Amino acid sequence: MRDLEIICESNAIHIINFKDFYPEHVFDCGQAFRWNRDDKGYVGIVGDSVVRAVYIEERKELVLENCTPEMFESFWKHYFDLERDYRAIKKQLSAGDPVMKEAVRYGWGMRVLNQDPWETLISFIISANNNITRIKGIIERLSRKLGREIKWDGKSYYTFPTPESLACADDEDLKSCGCGYRGPYIKKTAAMVAEGLVSPYKIKELPYEEGHKVLLSCMGVGDKVADCILLYSMEKPEAFPVDVWVKRVMEYFYIGSPVPIRQIKSIAAEKFGKYAGLAQQYLFYYAREKKIGK
Q1: Residues 183-196: pLDDT tens digits?
Q2: pLDDT beyond 70 at 33
Q3: Residues 276/97, Cβ–Cβ less than 8 Å
Q4: What is the mean pLDDT of residues 207-227?
Q5: For the structural domain made of 244-290, what CATH number should be given?
Q6: How far apart are the C-alpha atoms of 37 and 97, rounded to whole Å?
Q7: Residue 136 annotated to the active site
Q8: Closest alpha carbon to 221 in 256, 247, 186, 193
Q9: Which of 90, 224, 236, 265 is catalytic?
Q10: Long-range contacts of 246-250 (CB under 8 A, 24+ apart)
Q11: % pLDDT > 90, the chain
Q12: Which of 113, 200, 202, 227 is least crowded, fewest Cβ atoms below 10 Å from its Cβ?
């Protein structure tokens, strides 16, 4: 954060000289599902708060509306991962790697958000065999039905449901929200959290391998979903989620032939090290937008 200037103005925070950030790369890349574009910027429902993020590109300035200095220091600074030096990481990942250099150039404004582990756990159970538009719609309907209303800027927004509310949700309500076959998974995992059998916040404190193993005990969580949860909400930048796009780009550029996902993860760990998850973000965005290997 040493190059950033923070200005507080009424109920907004201005982050000046914010060069390693671009809203489309961050909010539309499939890591978070409660940020939506409006006519000014992106509005996000995060925890009990609603904020609007407006990026003024010519000034490299991010404005967070409905954010006090206290909220910024205690929450948003960490949420936007402002204490990580993305410039240095991009340089490190790109060194001697023309593919990664191009992927970083393409998605230069990517950042990994530090999201809530409970919300991320359920969100990525919903994400399995799904697309971003449908995931966002399901989460929005669940929040409207089971969350708490927040009013801001003349509109109503809804918090993400608690473990207890999802554990007790009516099967028909989950079905009407579009959960489909994932409904029982959501209820079972929510019940495990509500009863204290598993804690997303305690998993966050575990080393990567151990955390990954515990997450697999949650109904609806497989290898890729576990890696997404670890990367996007548990501060495990070594986690390397492999979806169809990442598999394609790794095989197309680095391997040359189809291989098991386990092998792709092993190659990624060796090649990208402790920042494999950040490399994955750049590769995912690049592959999806350019339709690599399709």
Answers
A1: 999 999 999 999 99
A2: yes
A3: no
A4: 97
A5: 1.10.1670.10
A6: 34
A7: no
A8: 186
A9: 224
A10: 246/280, 246/283, 246/284, 246/287, 248/287, 248/292, 248/293, 248/294, 249/99, 249/103, 249/283, 249/284, 249/286, 249/287, 249/292, 249/293, 250/283
A11: 90
A12: 202
Domain residue extents for the chain: 5-83, 117-233, 244-290
CA dihedral (38, 130, 212, 244) in degrees, to 10, reads -100
Q: Which residues contact 45 (CB under 8 A, 6 or more apart)?
A: 34, 143, 150, 157, 158, 159, 160
d(CA 151, CA 251): 47
Tens of pLDDT, residues 261-291: 999 999 999 999 999 999 999 998 888 887 7
The residue among 191, 192, 168, 166 whose CA lies nearest residue 179 is: 166
Identify the CATH homologous superfamily for domain 117-233: Hypothetical protein; domain 2 (1.10.340.30)
Q: Are 5-83 and 117-233 the same fold in CATH?
A: no
